[in-house]
User: Which sequence fits this backbone?
């Protein structure tokens, strides 16, 4: 046995022993306290930095002259976003929940002054330039709240496309750009992509949707440049319409930023953050330098910071857009010979970007800010900040602990591995790339290799996957444990020690459903209760296959959506409201379509005889699960 194999065996035994210990009566898989820093904001004078620590339910203050950590301010669970008022007196903290709390903190007194009521999973707070108005993204309500801070009252809700997760206001306060996390619509369409909603603040309406390139999803941040001329969005760019055979050529998932012209409300181009032989998995937070010459991008999956020469990007784009291909070949040898080629060019940023590897302890950078010539990342799994000198490439990044070094449990280690592109060949993606939002869906169809080529399937949520075997749409994996190991081998294209798989399994087993936004004060509405009766009755026959409590009998059926009468695994209906599109081919954009146009011959439920009200009630119930 080689030395490396022996060490791997020891690690496997160690983790297996710990798993057995935690499984004994009286022991718990609950994680010890850690911080999980996930959002950053600086004071207007840059003398203080505030850090939202999700799992600790507190906000830390950092004094940026000495870089000392101040005592935390306790807030409700799951602080998700931060904003400081233009005059520097107030700090707003969104605390995500089905009925979110929005804390308004008096910074002079360092305590919560009052709270506002937000929607489902609130985040991304944004102040108006005059500090009188606050904008909040309500992720699972698919809308944006507008608060008048003087009256402490919500004055408007503005509907957007799907899962608004980040927002940025133009310098004049006229336009709010909202990044919608996932695509909406059928997954088998020719173009499947998330959009950026452009909101006219005065009118209170979405005036335009900027459709990103085909395969764009998992949007995480949007930022307006200091001169107010551009906005940039970070996201994944998936090659979902191709078989997943050549990960190493960037033909599965690539990682990108999209540039927007604010004056025209138009997309300029999409640029890949990856290089020819190295992915830049899971771009997350964005930040500009004050002069707008550099853009910093936190690469959460590869634990790096990308620093990009933004004027150089615009100049290179202009050359490609205006010069003939022959001239381009003589200049910098780029693969892109037209503007349409740029989103596919893994060499576009050559000479315009450098990737800074963070210290070994600084894992999972999600948020980033820039103060002067220093970029600061908040590292979710490291409980640290990293300080990167933008002017001195040779300078080693500095790690700033926010508290004691986190002690990893098996579950926490599994969560890290799930988001860690180091277990993927060349770092192109992590498990979370295709299963964002805590192992849910990316709303895309994928032609995986477990059932041959030419059989794209809609991505499935991993919620309760270990409790509802078999796994995959066709049940080709007998258990979720088998699927985890096969997924690493055939999707991430590596083989890992057994302790990695064990940790992934234990993390996925801890997933719990979010309460549906269709519930009323946590309970079924009157319409949903009527729908439940239809669901459980022989009239529709839904409950015969989708049996409680997991709403699946774990049996395969031919439901008329596959070629040649293929039998498909019955999925759980729990959290159905957040897993659109539906059916194994992703052809049904809504549950109403599942019950009507996509159910010819009553192959998955007897619904053809139901009245419009019956269908509405049944849909409401299903959305409430």
Assistant:
């Amino acid at each position: 046995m080689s030395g490396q194999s022996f060490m791997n065996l020891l690690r496997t035994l160690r983790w297996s022993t710990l798993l057995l210990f935690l499984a004994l009566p009286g022991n718990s898989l609950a994680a010890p306290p850690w911080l999980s820093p996930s959002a950053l904001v600086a004071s207007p004078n840059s003398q203080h930095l505030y850090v939202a620590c999700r799992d600790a339910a507190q906000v830390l203050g950092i004094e940026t002259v000495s870089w000392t950590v101040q005592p935390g301010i306790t807030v409700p669970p799951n602080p998700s976003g931060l904003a400081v008022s233009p005059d520097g007196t107030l700090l707003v903290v969104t605390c995500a929940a089905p009925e979110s709390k929005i804390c308004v903190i008096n910074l002079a007194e360092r305590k919560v002054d009052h709270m506002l009521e937000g929607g489902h999973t609130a985040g991304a707070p944004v102040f108006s330039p005059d500090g009188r108005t606050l904008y909040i993204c309500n992720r699972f309500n698919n809308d944006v709240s507008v608060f008048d801070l003087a009256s402490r009252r919500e004055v408007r809700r503005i509907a957007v496309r799907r899962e608004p997760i980040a927002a940025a206001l133009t310098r004049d306060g006229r336009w709010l750009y909202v990044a919608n996390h996932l695509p909406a619509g059928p997954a088998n369409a020719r173009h499947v992509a998330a959009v950026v909603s452009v909101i006219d603040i005065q009118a209170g309406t979405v005036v335009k949707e900027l459709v990103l390139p085909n395969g764009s999803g998992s949007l995480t941040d949007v930022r307006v440049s200091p001169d107010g001329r551009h906005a940039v969005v970070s996201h994944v760019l998936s090659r979902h319409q191709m078989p997943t055979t050549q990960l190493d050529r960037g033909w599965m998932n690539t990682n990108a930023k999209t540039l927007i012209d604010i004056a025209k409300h138009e997309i300029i181009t999409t640029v890949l953050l990856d290089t020819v032989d190295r992915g830049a998995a899971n771009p997350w937070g964005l930040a500009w330098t004050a002069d707008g010459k550099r853009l910093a991008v936190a690469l959460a999956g590869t634990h790096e910071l990308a620093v990009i020469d933004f004027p150089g990007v615009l100049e290179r784009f202009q050359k490609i857009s205006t010069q003939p291909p022959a001239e381009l070949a003589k200049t910098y040898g780029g693969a892109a010979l037209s503007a349409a080629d740029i989103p596919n060019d893994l060499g576009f940023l050559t000479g315009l970007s450098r990737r800074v590897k963070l210290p070994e302890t600084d894992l999972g950078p999600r948020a980033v800010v820039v103060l002067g010539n220093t970029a600061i990342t908040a590292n979710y799994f490291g409980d640290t900040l990293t300080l990167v000198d933008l002017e001195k490439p040779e300078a080693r990044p500095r790690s700033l602990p926010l508290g004691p070094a986190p002690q990893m449990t098996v579950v926490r280690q599994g969560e890290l591995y799930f988001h860690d592109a180091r277990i993927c060949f060349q770092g192109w993606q992590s498990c979370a790339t295709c299963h964002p939002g805590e192992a849910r869906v990316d709303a895309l169809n994928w032609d995986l290799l477990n059932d041959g080529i030419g059989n794209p399937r809609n991505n499935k949520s991993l919620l309760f996957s270990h409790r509802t075997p078999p796994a995959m749409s066709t049940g080709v994996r007998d258990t979720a444990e088998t699927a985890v190991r096969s997924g690493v081998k055939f999707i991430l294209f590596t083989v890992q020690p057994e302790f990695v798989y064990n940790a992934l399994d234990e993390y996925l087993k801890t997933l719990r459903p979010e309460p549906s936004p269709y519930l009323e004060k946590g309970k079924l509405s009157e319409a949903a209760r009527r729908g439940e009766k239809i669901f459980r009755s022989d009239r529709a026959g839904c409950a015969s296959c989708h049996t409680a409590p997991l709403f699946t009998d774990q049996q395969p059926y031919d439901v008329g959506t596959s070629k040649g009468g293929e039998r498909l695994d019955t999925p759980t209906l729990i959290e159905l409201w957040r897993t659109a599109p539906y059916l194994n081919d992703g052809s049904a954009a809504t549950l109403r379509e599942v019950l009507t146009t996509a159910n010819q011959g009553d192959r998955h439920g007897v619904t053809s005889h139901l009245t419009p009200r019956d269908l509405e009630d049944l849909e409401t119930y299903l959305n409430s699960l």
Summary: The first strand starts at residue 37 and ends at 42.
